[in-house]
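so im writing up the methods section and need the Dihydrofolate synthase/folylpolyglutamate synthase record in one place, dumping it here so i stop losing it
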Amino acid sequence: MPDTLNGWLHYLETLHPVGIDMGLERVAAVADRMRLREQPLAACVITIAGTNGKGSTLAMVDRLARAHGLSVGTYTSPHLLHYNERICLDGIHVTDDCLIKGFEQVEQARLQDPAISLTYFEAGTLCALWCLGQAALDLVVLEVGLGGRLDAVNILDADVAVVTTIAQDHASFLGTDIEQIGREKAGIFRPARPTVLGSTSLPVSVRQTAEDLGAPVHALGESFNRHSHAAGWAWQGVDQSAQPITLTALPDPGLPLDNAATALQALALSGVSLSEACCREALAAVSVPGRMQWVGQWCLDVGHNPHAAAYVASQLQQQPCTGRTWALLGMLEDKDAEGVIDALAAAVTHWICVGLEGERGRSASDLVKRLEHRGLAVSHIASTPAEGAHWLGAQLNESDRVLATGSFVTVAELLSMALPQAVTLPVGEGNEIRHD
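--- predicted struct ---
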């Protein structure tokens, strides 16, 4: 067996003929060999599915729960710089040693007769569940990787199931029928266990699935809501006993407020008695790497579909810029580049197209064609995000800003380097990275 984390990650990439293989039979069989489902993973498990908003909702549930004194474990994917980011215990990434031990447990179980083939993600999910199960946690929050019903995370029964938003993405696996996509995402629901619907525009199939299962529905705009006001924003929701709760003067977390409201409702349904002071503390401190993350003049956002791009554009438009707004755009081949460009166009004045390598990579020239077809001029073409960033460093004025977006791959490459700045901005003006 490999003896380093990198060795394990390279090894796992060779185990299965395809990278994504939807279904639960294989991963559930290995989980049962590992005895992962004999005891509850934690006192409460919250599972979050959706097209956008999963990561920010999970981060807010995590931070809110820890502010209330709970021990919390989380599992997310993909990572930006280090695999360890996928699993956190009380806000701290798990160690290489923990991951190595977890992968050893997965491999021993997988190779029992008959041997079972696992994808990279399936093996990683089982390792994550093993690591989380060793920690005696009050709460575990799991992010669905793709879909819901057939995602490896769904081998566990969620005590509270959340669906954030639903739009077309991963069409080659989930199709383009939005109602069918809704049914797939709603596959994380369980009979008699609460569901939280975090958008007012979800497909009808999501609520219908919950109702058919007898899973209580708590929907944004109905059971819970949020309202902005001069002192911040307010939230109204319900607890486990359907008793009303109101929180006022909450700080802006710098993340979508619908997701913040959803996180609060999910935590309330987990049995936590929400404290206004704790909620304010948590929301003021939460941050999510790669989501509207400011590094000086650079805003890095992993958004890779039109819905996510529209949110980023709206946020930029609410923050006036006296100079130019550059977009450094790099996307994968299977993403809706036209939809992303259309969503960003009103907020961007200058475009830089960069290529992404790999089997799913999209060339910069492909993006150029799509921009020019819309009458949008391209200022520069680069073969990689880093090359585009270096070129831009010589162009930036003090009043400019840069949006780097389109893919986790784009943002990860830029986060691994020192981004060029036209000016050193003082800390405290909303441009620093907050470290949790």
